[in-house]
Amino acid sequence: MKTVKTFSELRVARSKLAEPVGLVPTMGYLHEGHLSLARRARQECTSLIATIFINPTQFGPGEDLSTYPRDIPRDLELLEKEGVDLVWIPNAIDMYPLGFQSWVRVSELTQPLEGARRPEHFRGVTTVVTKLFNATMPQKAYFGQKDAQQAAVIRRMVSDLNYHIQIVVCPTVREPDGLAMSSRNTYLDKDERRAAAVLYRALNTAQDAYLKGERDPNILRSLMNAELISEPFARPQYVSCAHPDTLMEHFGRVEDGALLSMAVYIGGTRLIDNILLEE
Amino acid sequence: MKTVKTFSELRVARSKLAEPVGLVPTMGYLHEGHLSLARRARQECTSLIATIFINPTQFGPGEDLSTYPRDIPRDLELLEKEGVDLVWIPNAIDMYPLGFQSWVRVSELTQPLEGARRPEHFRGVTTVVTKLFNATMPQKAYFGQKDAQQAAVIRRMVSDLNYHIQIVVCPTVREPDGLAMSSRNTYLDKDERRAAAVLYRALNTAQDAYLKGERDPNILRSLMNAELISEPFARPQYVSCAHPDTLMEHFGRVEDGALLSMAVYIGGTRLIDNILLEE
Questions:
Q1: What is the pTM of this model?
Q2: Nearest residue, CB atoms, A105 vs list B11, B105, B161
Q3: Partner residues linked to A99 by β-bridges
């Protein structure tokens, strides 16, 4: 496994990789969710590039850019075990040099849900993903279902901007109690960690009701919210029942594939989770 | 020479081209300026793609989208003579399908000059160029110096977004009286056509003064403006003496390489032209 930092090193290393090339973009501090993307990519691609970059432009003021957890040596060990061929760890000043001013924006899918609470977050995401795509030129790129809106936004961007890159969205990987894996789970203390399982419980409560025939999106949202507020450490920011591609909230009858999602503060830590409803 | 319309046809045809591939993006109604780009690309690249697409998103309300001149059969003949391998003529509804919402924006270089008079023009340009780059995957792309701000904006975008594409900017091609070639020259009637030579005369007046030692940008602008308004058919919209990369207006002493540019209405037709000052 080769590790590079600069664009010129990346170009040389990329030119030696046999295609198809798979890309696993990460912000590091890897967990089983990331590794599941690498494993899937390893199965589907001849060569595998992972990137580790805590992208400053997708963090808002007051968010956790400065405290976001980091452990590059451990990340590299894990990626090597998954058979990654090339790891690119760019510097922020190379990615956003003085005078940087080109932005990619997806205008509508970024408005609701996370976009409503994190202005400019998705502009940062789509811009950095564009840069990673252009720099690494993959045939496939792997993202997690946990960031459901991000996946929808990137799919739209790839289609709108005519990228010839297949976007593969992999299932959320969970802890034994159902908590979705996230680098941010490290922020939780012991009580909060126990409380954080409420997100998945709330999603399952709605899924169970759906299985029993409930099709009213307001009732599904209310069930999730009731479950969340029953946990003293939890403070829901939003609960949503929306179309998985348009992200428009459902008002009438809900159907299979609807996206149930939520953002919840557990103490001072903001967590998100989601499932797709299924019969 | 192969001609394709759809993305899937393009992909198949592109995959058969030997690299390096050169791209000449055009809006059609080709003149010697376009052909000079194709000739340069033919010398420098193994394969050559030209695109013909009148991009609706770079036209503002009240601009000449509906009347922009078209002659595809003639364009194809000319491109074939220049040794173009592949011509892509996309449809507007394939390029901007229902739900299209992804935009590329260069924020600062697009503010002055053309950007100040044509809001959203450059957003349309950078978005369509991104789409053309992603769809055709060239190693080099060719643009004309006549659209000086466009060239600066695209260079910045390519650098900021990490495209591994070399941008080649070719000299403006002129009619015998100095008028810069433009598909829009066809809008001029006989008197206007004669009057249109005033743009290049004005640029040369400033260049001559510069050669004689004039270094005050205000005097250079005034000289250009005086020449323009001496022509009864001409109505200057702006004259500029600016840095060629930042496009910031010069206030102090002007140096070699400064961009002299202007937009001028000749009758109802808006023309632009520019030169780079040289000793």
A1: 0.97
A2: B105
A3: none
